[in-house]
């Protein structure tokens, strides 16, 4: 008989990540007594179809009955990897109420119902860990909550979607257009058959809502995040970014500006010497600025069976350790402030503007005049030779309140000399 207690866990979902979690815990089973002073076993795995074979998971632990898990007092940790809002939300709330600790990777649920879940965990004095909800295998949630707790964090910025980073890398390095790069990403398994959540920035938006809430100690939901995807980005935009010394990435940017929070996900041109500019392919990275630590960056695999399982199992081990020392619930919700969101129009950014214009004199003066009349000053400009009577004018502005730029864009839409405002892309600059 073992001298160690046995901690039993249940796994909800046996997909790619769920399978990876089961395999990883089994692989580390002999080390668990040394790591947590207890044996750790997944005794139940909830699935929809009992007849489907799951590689590496024995048939005898499979169940399609949630109540069987909920009513088992010996199961003390529930690992939710089903995804989606329901029934995951209900299961997590029921598990916490039943006295079970919860580990989840469910970014969708946390971004919309994080407060409800954290309140329930606090009420029942249980752990609710979710490291894998942002950045796959990258440790970022617990560093923000614990390791960097002595800082006033003013900015969290990152590449938090591997699909879009892969696509933009191929467009940058190999000159592919968006459609070609997306198709390759789908063929390699980096993009879903329906890539909307990735390429339109929705996935990254949910992750940034979670990061901003933790970093600034104030609740941010998915609806608070300004979102723009990469489906309109062209190879020409990327080429011109390079001419100006920038690299184009889909960035999540969260800032605390004078105790107002602004959170966005959008294509951003960042200086080619910035550390994030060198994060390529399906890798993720999160860049944090604090008043004590200054700058810190966390980089690694942002998705996949074992990178994500790494984060999940780390949370399970942390929970098991807390159970051994009777200190579950010690790291709860950190949203003790109630800061307002900065109106989108009041946010200040630099912008890259690409115009298709008539090939005649006075065009640059006309564009500069409209921008100047709306409080937008020009930092850099390139005019390309005309083709078939249409020239290309590329402008980078100084920092401007977004509403002033939007006013100028309305006027450009009414000018006959402007055939098209082909691109409007943010350019990164420090606060």
TrEMBL record:
**Which cofactors go with this protein?**
a metal cation
Read off the InterPro entries from this record: ACT-like_dom_sf, ACT_dom, Asp/hSer_DH_NAD-bd, HDH, HDH_cat, HDH_CS, NAD(P)-bd_dom_sf
Q: What is its EC number?
A: 1.1.1.3
Indicate the segments forming the ACT domain, all copies. 352-429
CDD domains reported in the protein's UniProt record: ACT_HSDH-Hom
Kindly state which reaction or reactions the protein catalyses.
L-homoserine + NADP(+) = L-aspartate 4-semialdehyde + NADPH + H(+)
Q: Name one GO molecular function term.
A: homoserine dehydrogenase activity
Which one Pfam family would you cite for this protein? NAD_binding_3
**SUPFAM superfamilies reported in the protein's UniProt record:** ACT-like (SSF55021), Glyceraldehyde-3-phosphate dehydrogenase-like, C-terminal domain (SSF55347), NAD(P)-binding Rossmann-fold domains (SSF51735)
Keywords of the record: Amino-acid biosynthesis, Methionine biosynthesis, NADP, Oxidoreductase, Threonine biosynthesis
- This protein's pathway: Amino-acid biosynthesis; L-threonine biosynthesis; L-threonine from L-aspartate: step 3/5; Amino-acid biosynthesis; L-methionine biosynthesis via de novo pathway; L-homoserine from L-aspartate: step 3/3
**Source species, domain of life:** Bacteria
Statement: the UniProt record of this protein carries the keyword Oxidoreductase:
yes
Q: Does the keyword Phosphoprotein apply?
A: no
Major enzyme class: oxidoreductase
The family line of this record is: Belongs to the homoserine dehydrogenase family.
What's the protein name? Homoserine dehydrogenase
């Amino acid at each position: 008989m073992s001298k160690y207690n046995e901690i039993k866990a249940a796994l909800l979902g046996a997909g790619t990540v769920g399978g990876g979690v089961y395999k990883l815990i089994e692989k580390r089973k002999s080390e668990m007594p040394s790591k947590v002073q207890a044996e750790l076993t997944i005794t139940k795995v909830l699935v929809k179809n009992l007849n489907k074979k799951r590689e590496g998971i024995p048939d005898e632990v499979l169940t399609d009955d949630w109540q069987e898990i909920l009513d088992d007092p010996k199961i003390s940790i529930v690992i939710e990897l089903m995804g989606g809002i329901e029934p995951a939300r209900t299961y997590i709330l029921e598990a916490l109420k039943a006295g079970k600790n919860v580990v989840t990777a469910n970014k969708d649920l946390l971004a919309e119902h994080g407060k409800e879940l954290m309140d329930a965990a606090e009420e029942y004095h249980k752990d609710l860990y979710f490291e894998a909800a942002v950045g796959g295998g990258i440790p970022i949630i617990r560093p923000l909550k614990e390791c960097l707790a002595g800082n006033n964090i003013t900015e969290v910025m990152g590449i938090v979607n591997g699909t879009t980073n892969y696509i933009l890398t191929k467009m940058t390095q190999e000159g592919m257009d968006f459609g070609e790069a997306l198709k390759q990403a789908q063929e390699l398994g980096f993009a879903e058959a329906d890539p909307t959540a990735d390429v339109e920035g929705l996935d990254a938006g949910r992750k940034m809502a979670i990061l901003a809430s933790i970093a600034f100690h104030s609740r941010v939901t998915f609806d608070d995040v300004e979102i723009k995807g990469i489906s309109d980005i062209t190879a020409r935009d990327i080429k011109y970014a390079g001419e100006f010394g920038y690299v184009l990435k889909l960035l999540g940017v969260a800032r605390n500006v004078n105790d107002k929070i602004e959170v966005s996900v959008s294509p951003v041109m960042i200086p080619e010497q910035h550390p994030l500019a060198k994060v390529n392919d399906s890798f993720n990275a999160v860049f944090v600025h604090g008043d004590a630590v200054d700058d810190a960056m966390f980089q690694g695999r942002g998705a996949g069976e074992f990178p994500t399982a790494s984060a999940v199992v780390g949370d399970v081990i942390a929970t098991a350790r807390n159970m051994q020392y009777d200190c579950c619930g010690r790291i709860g919700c950190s949203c003790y402030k109630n800061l307002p969101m900065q109106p989108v129009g009041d946010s200040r950014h630099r912008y890259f503007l690409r115009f298709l214009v008539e090939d005649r004199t006075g065009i640059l003066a006309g564009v500069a005049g409209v921008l100047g009349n709306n409080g937008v000053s020009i930092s850099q400009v390139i005019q390309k030779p005309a083709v078939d009577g249409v020239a290309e004018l590329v402008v980078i502005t100084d920092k401007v309140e977004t509403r002033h730029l939007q006013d100028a864009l309305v006027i450009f839409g009414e000018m006959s000399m402007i055939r098209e405002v082909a691109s409007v892309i943010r350019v990164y600059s420090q606060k």
